[in-house]
Amino acid sequence: MRTPEFPPTVADVVTELERRYPPAWAQEWDRVGLVLGDPNAPVRRVLCVVDAVPETVAEAIEARADLIVAHHPLFLRGVSSVAPTTYKGRIVHQLIKADVALYVAHTNADVAEPGVSDALAARFGLTGLLPLAPPAVGAPAHGAGRGIGRIGKLPEPMTLAELTRHAAAVLPATAWGVRAAGDPRRTVRTLAVSGGSGDGFLAAATTAGVDAYLTADLRHHPTSEHLATGGPALLDAAHWATERPWLDDLAVVLRETTGVETLVSDLETDPWTVHAAPPAADDKEPDCEG
Ligand SMILES: [Zn+2]
Prior knowledge:
alpha/beta, Udp-n-acetylmuramoylalanyl-d-glutamate--2,6- Diaminopimelate Ligase, Chain: A, domain 1, 2 domains, 6-stranded mixed β-sheet, 5-stranded mixed β-sheet, binds zinc ion, metal-binding
């Protein structure tokens, strides 16, 4: 642990992050690690975010953070320019000008134990946690408890309709809210959760034999087919809301291992900003309700 006079460097913080979330555990297509910033620069304050976007970059600069730790990669594919005339180039310029480093822990934080979906599972009080999709034997991330998503038991059984309302209450609030697919009266005792876009794990949720599976970014056809073939009920939450809970754990890891001051961004970076439900049948004359 360093003192305020001798703060850790970016390299020191990266070392601790990679002890918990080894880059080798990331999926092959993923791009994790230090995106920009001088490894020798001192770090006193870190902002934890899901997305490094102009709004959270402004938040970091305003808070005088020295480092942003983000969940989503800024660059996933090759680029030939970081000119400030481009969306991402502008972010790069702002960060470098303000001397703010940027680090990404993505699928390596998803598979870690505890990882992104443990924080999500904790919001539901799930017990007896097991990974939804464990890494293959021989894969770098293979190990006890590790894998994408978690399955566990709810403290009390509830119907799908109740669970959907419960999910909207325990997850960070978003305009998107939570929607569910399946019989609203279905009893849910066991739940699978996966932070982020989890429709690649629909088959794993079926194999796991859970009553319901909560993730984000679910689509019409895979959802319909999944339900038609007897899969668990599905809950579709906002992507940001499923990953935001992990930031609190990340902040604890950073504080405990490096002594830095941590801030967690609550700026909702989910792109959906408006949600409308059709008026209920008994709700057609709102003016009469006073
Ligand atoms: Zn994500």
